[in-house]
Amino acid sequence: MTQTLSWRAAIVAFVVGVMGVQQLAQLPQPYWLWGMPLLASVWALPRQGGWRVARLTGFLLCWIALGVAWATWRADLRLADNLPATWAGVPVMVSGVVSDLPVRTDRGQHFEFNVDRVLTPGAQVPSSIQLSLYSAHSAGAPAAPPVQVGQCWQWMVRLNRPHASQNPHVMDMESVRFANDVRAMGVVGTRPQPQLLAAWVNSPMNRINLMREDIAQRIDRALPNQPYAGVLKALTVGDQSAIPAAQWQLFQRTGIVHLISISGSHITMLAGLAYFVCFWSWRRIPRLSLWLPAQRAATLAGALTALAYVALAGFGIPAQRTLLMLAVAAWALWTGRTLAPTRVLAAALFAVVLLDPWAVLSPGFWLSFGAVGLLMFSAGARVGEVHWLQAWWRSQWAVTMGMAPVLLLLFGQLSTVSPLANVVAIPAIEFVITPVALLGSIPGLGILLHVAHAGMSALVWLLQILATWPLWQQAEPSPFVVGLAMLGALWWLLPRGFPARWLGAFCLLPALLVQAPVPATGAMWVETLDIGQGLAVLVRTAHHNYLFDTGPRYGPNSDSGGRIILPYLRGEGVTQLDTLVLSHDDNDHTGGAGSILAAMPVDKILTPLPTDHVLIKPYVQHYLRCETGLSWAVDGVNFHVLHPDVSSYADPTLKDNHRGCVLKVDSPGGSVLLTADIEAPDEAYLLQHPADLPSDLLLAPHHGSHTSSTPAFITAVHPKWVIFTVGAHNRFGHPHGDVVARYANQGIAMWRSDWNGEVSFHFTPKQAPTMLAWRQAHQRYWMDGASEE
């Protein structure tokens, strides 16, 4: 192995070591580092003969160990800046500076805050936190003050450790927050009144963020109530908060999400444009070329342009990765070195992982480096001169085929129109809309913002046509299948004439034809999702899928249906629902229904909601009213509706909770009782028919509220297991301590979605049920132990 190849292999080994640490539930102890000198001793082995393999193996193991040591040390430093459990949820007075653009919603403001002083004696608070300042809703409550970047405030906060839902196939926001160094999250109290200590704290980053805020406000003023003003803000200052959910769905369906941000391709495009403009102009002035060669001047212009654009992005981590890659290329151009493209890629990879060991957790890391690597492989595989159009088409084909397995692993679906949509969207956004929007953000050139908006409107019109084409959607492939498919794609992309290229296509097939496991006939799978404070349960039989409730709506552009349930269903290979049960009209049970009904075929909607309800009216042909006595059987599994009684619909004053749909599911391997938010009076009604109640698994009524789970009801159901579907640190105090004690006193095993994440029960005939808690099965060293609170 040549020296160049060995150092590239060393960088890959270093990254493997870093990746390994990010998969651990606990950080390794330092004593294993004593093995490093032993690994390093392989350099003393002879270079010739049979020792070469041992020397190379030890060399790579040494670099893996270095990666492990580096990632462990960095993780120890970050974990040390923590919120102690004793100070979680406790009022603490702090002062500090608003460090990023606030995100404003109807409910209030959300922003990052750098703490410089903790004024509560003995309190410990991390240096970097996320805060929410909510608008006043009650009469006499102090109004929430407007917050701007660079301001210094003193206020009372209640903090908790970062905690996020844990489900298969769903983005792990807990890891995202840890990677972004958010070490606590909380709310600002309005009593005592927050004090503005300084209207402006001068610092380079604050000046940059103030400029970003000015540009965002300039776009809002120039384009009031225009549908794509949020997209222009995303392209100019990296602020995606104003893009509505419907637009995100369109961009995802057409495969252009990567373009709706200050991405690596945008930064590279602008840097390249600045390079070529400067190079062309510089060479036209001989005296300038004598003072500084045109290539160096152009390199400097491209690097400064990239730096400026990354600053506009707020120095986000994805933008920093691109800046590092461009910095390596700029260094090579400045010094006149001729570096192989793979050496530049390897050096950038090493720099990114060295500075940010958690970059390997980001899908963008793998997509960006993977796409660049595929382009290099495609270019290197060409033989002879190729027409530029043919070269461009081959590069697009290489990226599409090579990244398809990775996209299926990360997102569970492929846009069949993505290649065509990107052919139009890439030049439109990168060469027209983004540059024009950036020019329009300059004072006096605001008219160009209207031009950029018109261009975006035309592009969206085309995307809406393409979005009617079908998606390729399937179950999530395993990492082994993805690796096999990647090797197959590389083999297939080799030059014509290479032997057996067709074998590469066969290696791709397993990733594109994944069949998810399903229950056997007579078996039943009960998957209780972790969606925060709310309920969403998927009941699966051999050929049917039933979703009981859809969790909450989090905000105007976000709900648990789009954020959690749909990605989960795609990852499990579920393409349609036989029945969607909406148990009652509460946000934490129906908030995600709109997203699910819009994205997935549903055969029946079983609910007590009226037919003129906003959720039901467009789908009234699928409506089935939930009432006692309904029953059906499929795949050897029986379903029975136990509540509400038909007479409850005659009382318009009845609380929604008292009309909740209760579903009992019986299988030869076990049974489950899904209880919605029923309370003590409803439990008393169910106790009139005690023979219907015994169940192996119980979904705790009303999330474990003190108004439910009466002792008589628990005794009648006599479950082996109970699940409390609750949000971490929820304001209702669910589950209530007395309720927990009632279940504990009867020896019932308890599960909680905030402690255990998604909880899966598989009931199979003639077998003991199997159980899996996702948070414990996929524990990582940074995860919050909510049970410690």
UniProtKB/TrEMBL annotation:
One of its GO terms (cellular component) is plasma membrane. Keywords: Cell membrane, Membrane, Transmembrane, Transmembrane helix. It is found in: Cell membrane. PANTHER family: DNA INTERNALIZATION/COMPETENCE PROTEIN COMEC/REC2 (PTHR30619), RECOMBINATION PROTEIN 2 (PTHR30619:SF1). It is a multi-pass membrane protein. This is DNA internalization-related competence protein ComEC/Rec2. Residues 533-726 form the Metallo-beta-lactamase domain. The chain crosses the membrane at residues 7-25, 53-73, 256-277, 297-319, 340-359, 365-384, 396-414, 420-440, 447-472, 478-495, 502-526. The lineage of its organism: unclassified sequences, metagenomes, ecological metagenomes.
